[in-house]
Amino acid sequence: MTTDLRFRGASAGRKAAIVLIEILLASYALLIFYPLANMLLSSFKTTREILRFPFALPTKIDFANYVTVWVGKGFGRYFLNSLWMTGVSMAFVLLFGSMAAYGVSRYRYRLSTLVYMLFLSGIMLPLKAAIIPLFILMKNAGLVGKPLSVILIFIAMGLPSTVFILSGFMKAVPIDLEYAARIDGCSDWAIYRRIVMPVVAPAISLVTIYNAVPIWNDFFFPLVFLQNDRWKTLPVGLTSFFGQYSTDWSLLFTGLSIAVLPVILLYLFMAKYFIRGMTAGAVK
Amino acid sequence: MSGKDARKGLWIALFVLPGLAIVFAVILLPLFMSLFNSLFEWKQLLRGDFVGIDNFRRVFGTEPYRTRFFNALGNNLTWFVATMLVQNSLGLLFGYLLSRRMAGHEFSKRVIFIPVLFSIVAVGFLWGLYLRPNGLLNGFLKLLGRPDLTRAWLGDENLATFAIILVNIWRWVGFPSLVFLAAIDNVPTDCLEAAYLDGARETTVFGKIILPLIVPSITVITVLTIIGSLNVFEQIYTMSGLDGSPNFSTDTIGTLFYRTAFGSVDSGNPEIGIGSAIGVIIYVLTFGASIFSIASLGRREVEL
Questions:
Q1: What ranges make up the beta strands (E) of chain B?
Q2: What is the ipTM of this complex?
Q3: Has residue A95 been placed in a domain?
Q4: CA-wise closest residue to A261 among B126, B188, B62
Q5: Which residues on B lie below 8 Å from A104 (Cβ)?
Q6: Does the distance separating the beta carbons of B30 and A24 come in below 8 Å?
Q7: Are residue A20 and residue A118 in the same domain, yes or no?
Q8: Which of A25, A129, A234 sits opposite B34 (nearest CB)?
Q9: Is A125 within the bounds of a domain?
Q10: A32 and B275 in contact by Cβ < 8 A?
Q11: pLDDT tens sequence across B75-101
């Protein structure tokens, strides 16, 4: 395309500009990679080595730190807690969200706009600002300290964007498909389950990433509701770990590596999905 | 109502109600409870007398709340302005450069998005270590032979907020970059080709064609920046602590709100009345500023 900047055949001034831009982008890539590489390398060094020779390579690769943090300091448990709480929350976000999207996009009735707006109101309301009444409600329901409190909040966090994105896709599913299924004797549930859901499957993968990443990373609500070490999620566990071992740099870098590496590994294989999913709400 | 209509109504209820119940209980009900609670006096978790807008008056006019509140609000404003100026301009630049598909653009695109996936907590702690007086950044400056430039980045009242904002930009700049990239990729190629054939300069093409056509994505990024700037919390919590050290210089509405809601530094007790009032103020600011920017930027949108 003519809008592409190609080095070959360009004028001298343009070549210089291209080189400059490439240097800029490469420097930025370095600004992202180096702090991560240093974190990883530091996890194999002793605190003394980190402080005296911050740029040196580790003298030996020893996973003892990782065993200590994962087993001894409870990161394995934090990791599993994050995993299952995110999983359960996402299952219900997708189930209730797709059902609601179906209910507002595939039927004509007077209240459909109102129902849609009620769901959407959650997109612009900062849920953190409601922490006092949420805390009172959860306390009265006896849920403070129980994972269900955080799971309910995560589901509510995910529903507005899920309804917003999925109902857009569901509106585009041809009504003829539905008529054909109805003639074959399908119930409304079967149409939702067997006709509409398979058609919008690509959108399901989008909303999954769009919501799972913020839920996995959420700190505020687990901080308020899950103070018991047994149910701490990874971000909250990391926080108490930093409070406890604030001068043991070697362990701190190991904990950070454990928190960050799985995300990078997953991203290596699914970069395209992550980019499309995370920007799904902001890109048409 | 015929039997068919009743059946349809039942199906709709079945599909919509589970989700609606959760959204109502967790989002809408607490919103109204915040409004309601902010109008009462509170003794710990017990609601006292109706006091009207007294809590709001105390936030805006009574010490220590007034100083704390306006200090925090000022920092949120700094967050918004700095993020718009640095992060979103840089994002627009990256998005534009990546849209020109030079060698390695796919790689750059993937790389700048990596930190977007990290939790604020992990990024905050990582850079918190690097920015300590004996951390990596000062080590790097010494390596360059400029020990005079080393600072206590998070310990200096004049630097701490900006240091934390820069860390947040490091984490998040990939997001606006790729949103702008997607918007620029959507500009019809024949428009751009025609302009180039007419001999238009790069700056003209960018200013007169690309920029007007990507206003919708600028609106989205602006609204998200408003919401993000008013909700800053984890960044402060992990890098300078709940009190917004040093000397409240990094305090934000989010951390102030948390302290008032769950036992404040100033009194040691949770203050539900004042806390609810601050919560309502956060709602109003977020909602108002978002609506305002949607309305004012919406008028600048161009259709082809």
A1: 40-43, 46-50
A2: 0.94
A3: yes
A4: B126
A5: 16
A6: no
A7: no
A8: A129
A9: yes
A10: no
A11: 999 999 999 999 999 999 999 999 999
